[in-house]
């Protein structure tokens, strides 16, 4: 019925990584694109001296950035992490590489620095106008207008032909759309929250820990992690239940003494890395995490959601931004596949992509348990070793679960189902062996042959 | 944007099993439905004394007939077939049951008798008007009119809001739609054709062969099959290459002598069952078979295809009508899932259903080889026996391929992928065993445990 641009202006709400990338993809169809972002331009505004929020950039995100030709610029601001550095109770460390190959790398990247590159690239197209400090309030689909408030809190109504909601987990576009399209929304709030802490650089500017690893201090029911920044510091995050009846929680850490003794007890080798640990701990509110499930990602040829607005996930797999940018790429491909029928393209996008969004939502939750406790469990470690060995012996059929999510571009749902089958292979083999030396490799070969060939 | 009926009249083109069933499903949304059928009303017209065309009705078709509450009537006209009766060269027979369970039955049913029940049921809704001898010529989507020619060859233009193309493999609705929706069409014509023959009843009205079986006379590169009719006769079909350089073909059977000696050589025990075999053979043209692939099953909220119009397949799995009726059910469910957005429902229907259509198209082609040659191959027979034994031992994870298509309602694509994995299990086990008695059942259990649990 309608192609992109037929109904009128192409509007993207949200100028974060998902929105900026999508705008560039849409501009390549030959249309002018208006991007409305609620915050000030992070390239110009003073964003303060606070800690840098960094994210894990992996293959899916890189594929999206490659598609808009900015990876050369992004590479300059990333730090490669080759595996997990697990910090054990006794102060020892156990390095667990992410994969077998040199390319099995996760890149630590500053969200703001990446966003700045994408905003620059958007402006360079000559087809994208960025409008900052425009906070979306609601969308009127009958009138085809979106209501914003500007920096002076004045109401501004903007006409659109098609509106793309890249406006995050609390998406106002989604809020208005679900009132007309009969869709459903569910937010599963995690019972755990997080606080960020900073491990500063050494006086000479070097990193205080190996910068080419993601550091984990697992503590069973909770954990601390740290990702490197190019300036020599690490952004650390403590994940902990909001409240608990039988263990530490943010609610139980109200005084300076409580915080100090908590870190001394559970994170003795981490605590010395953060000067002013207690002040840092109390700086700012406890963050919430949730998984957002939406059914009804689009409304006719008028609106469609991408990124957290459609599928917000918890951060434990480091896939939130990767998934958001990959969704932009998938949506763009559907528009190219059905160039004359935008409504059908949007519906097909949801039909194809929602199972993947559900899968990464699940796997992100599972990965919290893996990071905070499994990484020191002997059964897990044997299966991890076996998994990498099977990948080495049968690269055509077996790929370790983590790698399928991080270093492949197969659909997340496929990665999840493959992982489930593979874990049955691992179960069969480890039920008959106490160490990697006892594995029956003939049986392993037969079992692996049942798995589907990798794409 | 629009719900069913919002744009205007609901029109179904085609009053065969797929169209009649779909009309009933659509009428249940509360709308009046007009059905246009090119042929005369088969319940009233003299359809001649020609042979009855019968079809295989299995679980998917039954599920659709159940959904419109006509199975009690349909049951009265079906003959249960419990397996394949394979007629060997030496005149012996080998009965191969379709499955392990009493309910693993395929029903032989007359296409016309089934269609008559569906047309009656359509009229009984009080919401469906049937228009016979109205041949669709083309559809004008700008004007929202469909052009028909009536019995007097006069042009009749009919306005529609939404048009459903259940108009068969040569679908005129599809022809017009693909000109506007940018879709693609491919017809893979099989190099083999078919002719129908009749095995009459015994003088006392009884069947000349076991009526509770589908009879096969496999001949390697070609075959004869026969399905029972309630009147005591069988409709037999010979499948043969149209032309061939190195074997028999319809082109090589031009004279009475050639036909007689061909049957004497290849189907010595079948030939005596058909009196006037040669006359019967030459009665009517050789039939063509093809697989129809369509990308772009719908156009906005205006048109959508079901059945052969969207996914014509070859007859060797006995699934053509089952798939057509199941597609009606699937489409109806998508309309119910997105009641306010018909265009999105249509797009989601294609996105979800096309992989299944592709899968049954593939499997129907494969089944020709299975029927005409594998059914007498020792390796195939061992795997078939093993497959049923594994289904018996591991009913939660293993289901013989044929049964997944015929006696389950899981998506065809899922059935095909499961079958592929299962065949690797069979390969592993039979590579280590010469008969069912040599099978390593421990290994079998380990291999089967890798398969996904059945739904």
Keywords:
homodimer, 455 residues, alpha/beta, FAD/NAD(P)-binding domain, 3 domains, 6-stranded mixed beta sheet, 14 helices, 22% strand, globular
Can you describe what's shown?
The structure is a homodimer of 455-residue chains. Chain A folds into three domains: 10-79 and 107-188 and 290-366, 3-Layer(bba) Sandwich (FAD/NAD(P)-binding domain), CATH 3.50.50; 192-283, no CATH class; 377-449, no CATH class. The first copy, chain A, is α/β, with parallel strands linked by helices and 455 residues long. In chain A, the strands form five sheets. The first copy, chain A, has a six-stranded mixed β-sheet with strand order 8-2-1-12-20-19, with helices on both faces. The first copy, chain A, has helices at 17-27, 59-67, 71-75, 111-124, 172-181, 256-266, 277-282, 308-311, 320-337, 342-372, 378-393, 401-406, 412-430, 441-450, and strands spanning 10-13, 33-36, 54-57, 78-81, 83-87, 93-97, 106-110, 128-131, 135-140, 145-149, 155-159, 162-165, 184-189, 192-199, 214-218, 223-228, 234-241, 290-295, 298-299, 303-305. Chains A and B meet through strand 19, helix 10, helix 13 and helix 14 of A and strand 19, helix 10, helix 13 and helix 14 of B.
- CATH fold group of the largest domain in chain A: FAD/NAD(P)-binding domain
* Structural class label of chain A: alpha/beta
Shape of chain A: globular
Identify the strand order in the major beta sheet of chain A: 8-2-1-12-20-19
Distance between the termini of chain A: 35 Å
Number of domains of chain A: 3
User: How much is the average pLDDT of chain A?
Assistant: 95
Q: Using the CA coordinates, give the radius of gyration of chain A.
A: 23 Å
Number of helices of chain A: 14
In the CATH hierarchy, the architecture of the largest domain in chain A is 3-Layer(bba) Sandwich
* CATH-assigned homologous superfamily of the largest domain in chain A: FAD/NAD(P)-binding domain
Strand content of chain A: 15-25%
State the CATH class of the largest domain in chain A: Alpha Beta
**Overall helicity of chain A:** 25-40%
């Amino acid at each position: 019925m309608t192609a992109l641009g037929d109904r009128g202006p192409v509007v993207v709400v949200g100028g974060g990584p998902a929105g900026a990338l999508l705008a560039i993809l849409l501009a390549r169809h030959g249309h002018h694109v208006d991007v409305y972002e609620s915050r000030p331009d992070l390239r110009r505004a003073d964003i303060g001296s606070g800690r840098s929020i960094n994210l894990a950039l992996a293959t899916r995100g890189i594929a999206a950035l490659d598609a808009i030709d900015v990876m050369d610029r992004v590479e300059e601001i990333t730090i490669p992490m080759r595996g997990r550095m697990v910090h054990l109770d006794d102060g020892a460390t156990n390095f667990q590489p992410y994969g077998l190959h040199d390319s099995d790398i996760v890149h630590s990247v500053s969200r703001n620095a990446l966003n700045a590159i994408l905003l620059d690239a958007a402006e360079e197209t000559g087809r994208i106008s960025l409008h900052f400090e425009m906070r979306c309030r609601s969308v009127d689909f009958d009138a085809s207008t979106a209501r914003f408030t500007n920096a002076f809190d004045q109401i501004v109504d903007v006409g659109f032909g098609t509106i793309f909601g890249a406006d995050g987990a609390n998406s106002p576009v989604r809020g208005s759309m679900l009132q007309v399209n009969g869709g459903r929304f569910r937010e599963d709030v995690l019972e755990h929250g997080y606080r960020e802490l900073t491990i500063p650089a050494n006086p000479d500017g070097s990193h205080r820990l190996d910068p080419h690893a993601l550091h984990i201090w697992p503590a069973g029911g909770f954990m601390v992690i740290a990702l490197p920044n190019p300036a020599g510091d690490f952004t650390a995050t403590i994940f902990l239940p909001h409240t608990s009846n039988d263990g530490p929680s943010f609610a139980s850490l109200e005084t300076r003494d409580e915080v100090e003794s908590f870190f001394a007890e559970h994170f003795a080798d981490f605590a010395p890395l953060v000067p002013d640990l207690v002040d840092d701990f109390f700086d700012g509110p406890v963050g919430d995490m949730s998984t957002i499930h939406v059914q009804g990602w689009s409304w006719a040829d008028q609106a469609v959601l991408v990124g957290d607005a459609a599928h917000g996930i918890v951060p434990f797999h480091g896939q939130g931004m990767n998934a958001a940018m990959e969704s932009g790429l998938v949506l763009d491909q559907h528009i190219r596949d059905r160039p004359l029928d935008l409504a059908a393209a949007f519906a097909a996008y949801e039909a194809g992509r929602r199972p993947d969004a559900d899968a990464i939502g699940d796997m992100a939750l599972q990965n919290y348990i893996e990071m905070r406790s499994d990484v020191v469990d002997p059964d897990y470690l044997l299966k991890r070793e076996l998994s990498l060995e099977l990948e080495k012996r049968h690269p055509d059929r077996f790929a370790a679960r983590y790698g399928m999510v991080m270093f492949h571009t197969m659909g997340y749902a496929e990665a999840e189902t493959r992982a489930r089958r593979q874990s049955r292979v691992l179960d069969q083999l480890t039920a008959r062996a106490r160490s990697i030396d006892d594995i029956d490799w003939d049986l392993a070969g037969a079992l692996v042959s049942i798995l589907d060939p990798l794409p």
